Amino acid sequence: MILAGGRGIRMGGIDKALLPLMGRPLVDHVLTRLAPQLGPIAVSANGNPARFEPWGLPVLRDGFMGEGPLAGLMAGLGWAEAQGAKALVTVAVDTPFVPADLVARLADRGVDLPVVAASGGRRHPTVALWPVSEAPRIAEAFAEGERRLGAVLSGARSVDFSAAPDPFFNINTPADLDAAELRLRAAP
Ligand SMILES: Nc1nc2c(ncn2[C@@H]2O[C@H](COP(=O)(O)OP(=O)(O)OP(=O)(O)O)[C@@H](O)[C@H]2O)c(=O)[nH]1
């Protein structure tokens, strides 16, 4: 599931999913990397779902609006369960260089506990595998006021994807967008 329900405040309050990087929307970059991995894929987003029609993606709305990506995760886990899946993998839409073996390497660690991607000694809570069986625990944490993905990953395993340049470089600001363009020009 591509997490794309953010407000993009640091980018000037725009929908980052549609932000062009080398002429292609960010959602298209992430989808191109994920599509050969494992499906089905959905996008976690609010607002008008018609904007994702060109990609034929199911759009999962947050059950709790304006509460952050944990609300998106909960909707995603409900969708995954309805698909008969054991687990859901999340990737942030602003992370266009996700590795081609992301899903396989996360799932290699098992699908009974959360598994989070790491690089450069840092965990990336938006890029993780979440067992469907964890949904009640996550909903409980949310009900108690937790809003941080990282907090509900406290007992998670991690997989190190460290590489140069960082596969989890994410685009938050116009300067990040420029850096991503330079990176793509150097290695399309
Ligand atoms: N479904 C859902 N996803 C969210 C929400 N808030 C953030 N996200 C996603 O979570 C990921 C990380 O978000 P951030 O970079 O912290 O926030 P952002 O809104 O994208 O950007 P800023 O407003 O500049 O912080 C991105 O993929 C966002 O699209 C939300 O309320 N619901």
UniProtKB/TrEMBL annotation:
Recall the GO molecular function terms of this protein's record: GTP binding; metal ion binding; molybdenum cofactor guanylyltransferase activity
Positions of GTP binding: 3-5, 16, 62, 94
Which cellular compartments is it found in? Cytoplasm
- Where, in this chain's numbering, is Mg(2+) bound? 94
Pfam families for this protein: NTP_transf_3
Alphabetized UniProt keyword annotations: Cytoplasm, GTP-binding, Magnesium, Metal-binding, Molybdenum cofactor biosynthesis, Nucleotide-binding, Nucleotidyltransferase, Transferase
Catalysed reaction(s) here are: Mo-molybdopterin + GTP + H(+) = Mo-molybdopterin guanine dinucleotide + diphosphate
Signal peptide start-end: none
Q: Looking at the record's lineage, which domain of life comes first?
A: Bacteria
Q: Which residues form the MobA-like NTP transferase domain?
A: 2-153
Gene Ontology annotations for the cellular component aspect, listed alphabetically:
cytoplasm
Which InterPro entries does this one have? MobA-like_NTP_Trfase, Molybde_CF_guanTrfase, Nucleotide-diphossugar_trans
What's the cofactor?
Answer: Mg(2+)
What NCBIfam families would the database entry show? molyb_mobA (TIGR02665)
**HAMAP family per the record?**
MobA
Name the protein family: Belongs to the MobA family.
The record describes the protein's role as: Transfers a GMP moiety from GTP to Mo-molybdopterin (Mo-MPT) cofactor (Moco or molybdenum cofactor) to form Mo-molybdopterin guanine dinucleotide (Mo-MGD) cofactor.
Question: What note about domains is in the entry?
Answer: The N-terminal domain determines nucleotide recognition and specific binding, while the C-terminal domain determines the specific binding to the target protein.
Summary of subunit composition and partner proteins: Monomer.
The record's annotation in PANTHER family points to: MOLYBDENUM COFACTOR GUANYLYLTRANSFERASE
Q: What is this protein called?
A: Molybdenum cofactor guanylyltransferase
